[in-house]
Specification:
330 residues, alpha+beta, twelve-stranded antiparallel β-sheet, 9 helices, globular
């Protein structure tokens, strides 16, 4: 269900009526790109069934899937055709188009070639946990997750989100765990790690399929390198890589979780309900313990800017007059 995920906190939540959600989703349903369209984004059926519902509820957990289709013309083709047209115009008129004229010709070439470009699709799973006040977006980068969050806010007008921040930055916590050669309670360090020097050169050391419980890792930290990602396992049930931006990558449910999880009813249903229940059930237990290991959620007092140890995820505030999700660094 999730390979990567970013965590958002629900600041406000006004559950919409069923008819309101259905109407909004119907208006935002995914439609494939037209011949001359470069990108199309919309919601699709989480179960993969045509003309099915776009918002699934399994055990109180809400699941949506956003689909993105893009078409791109290879840059080399554009460059080649542009050069041919510019050369022809220069031969005919004695002048070679530059600046705005050249850009307009380039745009014309892209418009002509788009109908022949092959579309590429990707989907992003969204899990809303109203009871826990969290949203998980199945993306590996903050930029992609923020784009999905924008569409969530448009879909649910009463929803306000902010990236999860913790009292300890992941970098600070990971430095302590690696120096002590031990993960926090309930977690173990695995065999993957990256450390970078926080300067212009960005010198990096990476460990892959290598034990991290060695003095050498601590020496790198003492010399000033900071962890940007560390592989971990929670309760021998879920493995993942924690990054400096508080992103979970390479999420994997381990065999002890998967064994005996499928029943005949699950298989008849295609396994969707079972997959959702299993994944959300495990992550709902993992996330509070991970947040606790990072010092707990960052609490902001009324009228006081959020402060914490240096973190990879900056505080964000809404710009005056901006849309609900339009944010800029505080």
């Amino acid at each position: 269900m999730f390979k990567n995920a970013l965590i958002y906190r629900i600041d406000t939540w006004e559950p919409p009526t069923g008819s309101d959600v259905e109407g909004r989703l119907a208006g935002a349903r995914f439609i494939p790109c037209t011949p001359s369209q470069a990108e199309s984004i919309g919601w699709v059926e989480p179960r993969g069934e045509k003309h099915g519902v776009l918002l699934e509820s399994v055990g109180g957990q809400l699941i949506l899937t956003l689909c993105t289709e893009t078409k791109a013309v290879p840059g080399g083709v554009i460059k080649e055709q542009l050069e041919e047209r510019l050369a022809k115009i220069e031969a005919d008129t004695g002048r070679r188009p530059k600046g705005k004229a050249s850009r307009e010709i380039k745009e014309e070439i892209v418009h002509e070639l788009l109908p022949r470009a092959f579309p590429k699709r990707s989907t992003t799973v969204v899990w809303i946990d109203p009871k826990a006040g969290r949203v998980l977006i199945g993306a590996g980068s903050a930029k992609k997750a923020d784009a999905v969050a924008t569409r969530l806010v448009d879909l649910f007008p009463g929803l306000r989100l902010s990236p999860l921040q913790t009292a300890l930055s992941p970098t600070t916590a990971m430095s302590a765990w690696l120096s002590e050669k031990q993960g926090p309670p309930g977690f173990s360090l695995d065999r993957e790690c990256e450390l970078k020097q926080p300067d212009a050169e960005k010198a990096a050391v990476r460990y892959a399929r290598h034990t991290l419980e060695i003095d050498e890792v601590g020496v790198h930290i003492q010399q000033g390198k900071l962890p940007t990602q560390v592989a971990m396992t929670w309760a021998s049930r879920v493995s993942f890589v924690l990054t400096e931006a508080l992103t979970l990558k390479k999420i994997k449910l381990l065999d002890v979780v998967l064994e005996g999880s499928s029943s005949p009813a699950d298989r008849a249903d295609g396994g969707f309900d079972a997959d959702v229940a299993l994944t959300t059930g495990e992550l709902a237990l993992l996330l509070p313990e991970l947040i606790e290991a990072l010092g707990g959620p960052l609490v902001q007092e009324a009228g006081t800017p959020a402060t914490a140890a240096p973190a990879a995820v900056p505080s964000v505030v809404a710009a005056p007059g901006a849309p609900p999700w339009a944010v800029e660094p505080a």
